[in-house]
Amino acid sequence: MSSLFVLIQSVPANAQLFKKKAKKENKSPTPKKKKDSKIKPYKDVITKSAKTDSGLIITHQLDADHYFEIPMDLLEEEMLIVSRISGFVKNLNFGGAGIKSRPQQVIRWQRKNNKILLRSVSYNSVADFDEPIYQSVKNNNFEPVIEVFDIAAFNKDSTAIVFKVNSLFESDVTMLGPMSSNQRKNFGIKNLAKNKTFINNIKSYPKNVEVRHVLTYNGSKLPDNQVTGTLSIEMNQSIILLPKDPWIRRKYDDRVGYFSVSQTDYSSDAQKADRKRYITRWRLEPSDWDAYERGELVEPVKPIVYYVDPATPERWKPYIKQGVNDWQKAFEKAGFKNAIYALDPPTPEEDPEWSPEDVRYSVIRYVTTDIQNAMGPHVHDPRTGEILESDIIWYHNIMNLLRNWFFIQTSVVNPEARKVKFRDEVMGELIRFVSAHEVGHTLGLPHNMGASVAYPVDSLRSETFTKRMGTAPSIMDYARFNYVAQPEDGDVGLLPGIGPYDDWSIEYGYKLSSREDDPDGDAAVTNDWIKEKAGNPLFRYGRQQRNVIDPTAQTEDIGNDAIEASTLGLKNLKRIVPNLIEWSYEEGQNYNQLKELYGQVTGQFRRYIGHVGNNIGGVVAMYKTADQEEAVYSHVPKAKQKQAMNFIISNVFETPMWLVDQDILNRITDDEALDPINRLQNSALRTLLRSDRIDRMIENELVNKNAAYKVSEMFEDLEANLFKDVNDPNVTIPRKNLHRLYVNMLEKILEDGEKSNAHSELTSYAYASLTKLHSKLNNIGVHSLAMKARIKKLLE
Questions:
Q1: Confidence of residue 97 (pLDDT cuts 50, 70, 90)
Q2: Alpha carbons 338 and 345: distance in angstroms, whole number
Q3: Residue 747, Ramachandran bin (φ over 0: left; ψ between -120 and 50: alpha; else beta)
């Protein structure tokens, strides 16, 4: 195998990562002492009063001064620096203690004369060290200098360099800071208050150094405690030595979901700048290669272990652990047993050196903020994608989000969900579900929004099917809970679990095809694995979309038919509303819970509108490679789009008066009874009249002609409902509001067209629809007269 990819570096250390080491250039020689040198004897710098900590880098503290003692052998070696906020401030950002504030960054320490340079390293561009093109890549990717330090001393045998590091951690260094440029602007940050900035402590471990320091800023619009005029944030910097023997790489494939690293390989045979991607995964290496290759289950040399934060409430720890352990069976598909599990950390008496900051340990951190979320990030080697460590961020208030979801989506068929506070056993299972999902992210798995469409809606109403298969084939989908089940369906399953797709994705990502690092040869093997699964919806991957184009890969949906599923879900919402007062009752409490849960009803309704509406102008993506037949993209059939429009007309534009429950509204609002309906109808109109949706419908008509649901047909269907009662003297207030919403929407379309100086097809249809409405309106009644006058002005 030829020598493989290296980082573009100012000094080509670690040049041949996967075969043999290239010789280091400019190897730091034993220093020559000069009489006029600022370099002092070791004992004069690191005195007997110093507090010393040994590890990857020896660290010393003398009062407020902190020194690194770096062995010569570590100069030019690549390390990773990970910046996390350890002391969080309310409203700083969407995060909490433990959250990464900056993308991870590769660094190296470099000697230049009597200075030490800290340089930033990028793996965006790579080349084989032995090839001439390597020099060009190096020259065109010069490494920036982050900080410069004076060498203070050498150790006694001159095998290590000592320098003071305060300037790195007590200055406003962008790469290590807690805020983005936008945050600094929003908070009115003026400068760093250096007299209030300091290093708390530095600890050294075998593979990493952890620095905790406090940065204090002067500002005028601070997120919390504005009266002080200062913002103090504690940061934790992890400096991690990258593996000397990089892990086996696996190429990324669109057909199976994985997070990835990417590099432009200028040594590639491709006649272009060849962008290559490799999946992120843990180093699971068989303890017995021969047994592994015979197909036997073996334990990994180093299993994946998560420690549960000691701050976690005791009653939730077993469920969080179970969410981790649930992945064990999936790893058996990849040939490993006991590959992953969760533990409590050792007590200080058992191991006084154990720390959640130590990169050797992955921790599920319990964060006490009001954020309703959980996160599963990881730290990885940018050269290969190897996951080195992960700290799951577990927000205390995720329980409120789970309560709301489970209540709204299952309470009609599940008495356990008909209350504002669940039994611990019920909440525990919901926590287990989230734990397993977040662990999936830390294993390298992104969301798979295309999974839930594999299950027929009818099957989700089957007790035997749901108890065996869950509600979706992947826990990495946002499939949440079973909202389609009806009261007559019996004891159906309500939650998803780790399913067939999850087993397959772990098999694809972690099953090893070779002992060698050969990405191209490995890709030929994994391609055969993928093609064996092709066509089976259980193993389909659908990537997450910001603006939904593919209606079969949406968030918060379940089942293979969004219209049928949403119709059933809507039936359940209508059953919930009359019971909300009773089910949200708390003796001696106000109606805040009722108000929150009523808002959750309208929010769930809005999701159904989106699930259905996205079929109109929708394009389904089924990822394939050139050696597979059939198209990748296909338009949603006309009949399905027409059916989606009818759902929105009959359930949204025909006023959903079931939401106007006077008993509820009299308890939660004094003047906003119609606001939920207005917002839902506005949401539906915005969904339908998105310009990108109209563009796709026009393309569909161009290609498929009468087989397409045309834009003109959509407007005709819309107008037939919206215009039918504009001249009715008894037209209701909600319908008048809908008429005005529609005109407002068309006005905005015209304004946007004028601002962009581009006359799109949507603009033409907006003009045409306003013209039709103007001609339809009579001169009788205040509503008709006002509408007519306004439209006339818009058309002038």
A1: low
A2: 18
A3: alpha
Please give the Cα distance from 582 to 605 (Å, whole number). 21
CB 155 within 8 A of CB 136: no
| Domain shared by 214 and 295, yes or no | no
pLDDT tops 70 at residue 447: yes
On whether residue 274 sits in a domain, the answer given is no
Q: Are residue 527 and residue 640 in the same domain, yes or no?
A: no
pLDDT tens-digit readout, 401-411 = 999 999 999 99
What are the pLDDT digits (tens) for 569-623? Answer: 999 999 999 999 999 999 999 999 999 999 999 999 999 999 999 999 999 999 9
Q: Using the 3D structure, point to which of 206, 241, 276 is the last residue of a domain.
A: 241
Q: What's the pLDDT band for 220 if we cut at 50, 70, 90?
A: confident
pLDDT band at 9 (very low <50, low <70, confident <90, very high): very low
Cβ atoms within 10 Å of 14's Cβ, excluding its own: 22
Asked if 376 and 474 sit in the same domain, the reply is: yes
User: 12: Cβ–Cβ under 8 A, 6 or more apart, which residues?
Assistant: 6, 22, 24, 25, 129, 134, 138
Q: Furthest-apart CA pair in the chain: how many Å?
A: 103
Which domain-ending residue is among 500, 526, 560?
Answer: 560
**Residue 488, exposed/middle/buried by CB under 10 A (0-12, 13-18, 19+)?**
exposed
Q: Which two tokens stand for residue 726?
A: 């504009």
Instruction: Return the minimum-mean-pLDDT range out of 119-133, 438-452, 564-578.
Output: 119-133
Query: Same domain for 468 and 536?
Result: yes
Whether 186 and 297 map to the same domain: the answer is no
> Which pLDDT does position 219 carry in this prediction?
87
| Domain range enclosing 533 | 289-560
Q: Is there a single domain that holds both residue 500 and residue 419?
A: yes
Average pLDDT, the chain: 92
Q: CA triplet 133, 135, 141: central angle to 5 degrees?
A: 105
Residue 37's H or E segment, with its range, is: none
Total number of domains in the chain: 3
For residue 649, the 8-state DSSP code is I
Name the residue with tokens 């299952």. Answer: 410
Closest CA to 378 of 457, 290, 283, 463: 283
504 and 539 Cβ atoms separated by less than 8 Å: yes
What number of other Cβ atoms are within 10 A of residue 588's Cβ?
4
At 759 the pLDDT is 60
Find the DSSP H helices in 251-384: 289-293, 317-325, 328-333
Same domain? For 458 and 340 the reply is yes
Q: Are residues 349 and 480 in the same domain?
A: yes
In a domain, 256, yes or no: no
CA 25 from chain center: how many Å? 40
* Whether the predicted pLDDT of 254 surpasses 90: yes
Residue 267 domain flag: no
**C-beta of residue 79 within 8 angstroms of C-beta of residue 57:** no
What pLDDT does residue 448 have?
98
> How is residue 555 written in tokens?
């968030």
In a domain, 175, yes or no: yes
